[in-house]
Every structure is written in C-alpha cells, then in structure tokens.
C-alpha cells in the first residue's frame, strides 16, 4: 500500500493505461507541457510526446469532436476539461455524437471515450466554475456517468473507464484532488456500474456521491456517538444507478436520505426518488428526504457560497428527525 493524493491516483491510472495500450491518448487544454490545470497529466508529455498528450486551443467543441472521431477509428481518447463547466460548449458533440453514434451506426462504431475533469462547488471560483453538471448529462442516452470520491476508487474507476468501449463522463470534484489515501501497489480496476457500501447500518440509508460522501462521513461520526446507526452508500455510478444495491439497503432500513451537491430540481436525487418509488416503494416507512444544493448559480461571496450547499450538521439533524419516526 502507498499513500497517494487523488490527482496522483488519476495520473497513475492514465500513465498505466497509456503504457499498456498505445491507442490511449489525452486531449485538452494545457494537458501537455503544463501538466494539466490540476496536474493530473504532469510529466506525461515528456514520456509520451506530442502525439499522445495533445495540447489544444481553447475550443471545447472542436477537440471533443476530434476525440469522438478518433474513438470511432479505434483510438481511446481521454478528454480533459480544464473545468467540466467548459464542456457545455461541447454539449452538441457529447449528446448528438458520443452518445448516439454506436446506436445510429447499427453498432458499426464503438466510442471508447473518457471525458474527465474537475467540477462541483469549489472555494470562491464563481458561478461559471462551480457548476454541477451531472444531471445535464444524465439525460443523454448512450453515456455512462461516474463520480469518483477517493484516491482508491478514482484510480480503479478511471482505468475501467479507459478500457470501456462506451463514452464515459468521469466527474472529479475540484476540492478532492488533495485528498490522501493508501491504495494498493498492485494493479486493480473497479466496476463502473456498482455503488459502494461505505458503512453498514440498520437505522437509515444515506445515499450520496463525490464530495458529499465526506460530509456524510463527518455527520455519521457525530451520529454514531449518540447511538444512531446509519448505512452509507456512495453511488459512484450515476448512470446507470445501481438500484439493486440501493433497494437491498432500503429493505433493511426502510428510511432514505439523499445527500447531493447537485441542484434539487431535476437533479440526481430526483431520479433516485423516481427509481426507488418504482422499485421499493412498499419498503419505505416515510417519504424520502433530499438534501440538495440551492437552485441558484453559485455565489462568489464565500458566506453565500457556503449557504448554497449541504453541510454535516444539516445531515445530522435530518437523520435524527427521520429516525425518530421509528421510535
């Protein structure tokens, strides 16, 4: 085991897959000589050269379209968005090309493409750099969507995403890059369609992902000292949702809280509620509670920004209120 930062885990995954498969390449702004805006590709340009670590102009629609074309011809491009918000400029390419071409070609083309980069609410990055785009992409047919949350799952999931023959949107939270964790020295991969049972419990099921996993863990540490026993599931796969793991937990606890950084209106939590109601409605002892971000552009002001997202004390209060139903 080696203690490693999350951005180093992503770099290791990229490096290992590039060394293993000459078809893997990286495309994006400042990914080469500069080493990426958050240093995920640091040192790779010197190792692999201009043709496999491609610095691009500031033209997301163009280089994303180029990457999709490269994937159609058998390469395995990794597109880095300097900030995932910028990839809204390539929404047409992602939705009408990446998501559709395998289907509209009758299976004649595969699209082994990874689109990855930082997103989420940072620390005073402003509205345009603090967007939560998971729900934007969730509605696009043909995509897989993954949100990493630890160095361990970041490395294993990115390696699996690079090897997958379908387009994968890979979300990294801007505030988790410096998170440290011991990860195995030997090679490993993780499934792209499975949630992680972070903590077993019997009182209530907490569903979360990305940075909010860590807010939930802080809340659970407080709750455990007061004899509450929550079960925590990190969704990881946002499309498809691992409804089997989710329903298995609900059948045990019968209560659900969703903690997300996504907006409440039409967010990931909204889709979760729909699928839980379809698959496990009779197991619920109370309506599902959503703790979501405010439906506003993220303010630049630090105090206002903090007020838009969910914090551990809010989770503690919500769990206590819901578990009291059982008493």
Just name the CATH architecture of the largest domain.
3-Layer(aba) Sandwich
Total number of domains: 2
Q: Could you give the order of the helices and strands?
A: EHEHEHEHHEHEHEEEEHEEHEHEHH
Number of helices: 12
Q: What sort of overall outline do the alpha carbons produce when their principal axes are compared?
A: globular
Strands, total number: 14
* Unreliable residue runs: none
Question: What's the rounded overall pLDDT mean?
Answer: 96
Q: What's the CATH topology name of the largest domain?
A: Rossmann fold
What is the terminal-to-terminal distance? Answer: 43 Å
Structural class: alpha/beta
Biggest β-sheet: count, sense, barrel?
7 strands, mixed
**CA-atom Rg in angstroms:** 20 Å
CATH classification class of the largest domain: Alpha Beta
Fraction of residues in H or I helices: 25-40%
Strand order of the largest sheet: 3-2-4-5-7-6-12
Concise synopsis of the structure shown:
Heterodimer of an alpha and a beta chain. The protein is α/β, with parallel strands linked by helices and 327 residues long. It is built from twelve helices and 14 strands.
Describe this structure as you would to a colleague.
It is a single chain. The chain is of the alpha/beta class. It folds into two domains: 2-183, Rossmann fold; 196-323, Rossmann fold. The chain contains twelve helices and 14 strands. It has helices at residues 6-20, 44-48, 60-72, 91-98, 101-104, 134-138, 151-163, 212-224, 243-253, 268-280, 302-308, 312-323; strands at 2-5, 24-28, 53-55, 76-80, 114-119, 144-147, 168-173, 180-183, 196-199, 204-208, 230-234, 237-239, 256-263, 289-293. It has a seven-stranded mixed sheet, sandwiched between helices. A five-stranded mixed sheet has the order 9-11-10-13-14, with helices on both faces. The chain has a two-stranded antiparallel ribbon with strand order 1-8. Strand 10, helix 8 (212-224) and strand 11 form a beta-alpha-beta unit. Helix 3 runs parallel beside helix 4 (91-98), helix 8 packs across helix 12 and helix 9 (243-253) packs across helix 10. The chain is globular, with a radius of gyration of 20 Å. The N and C termini lie far apart (43 Å).
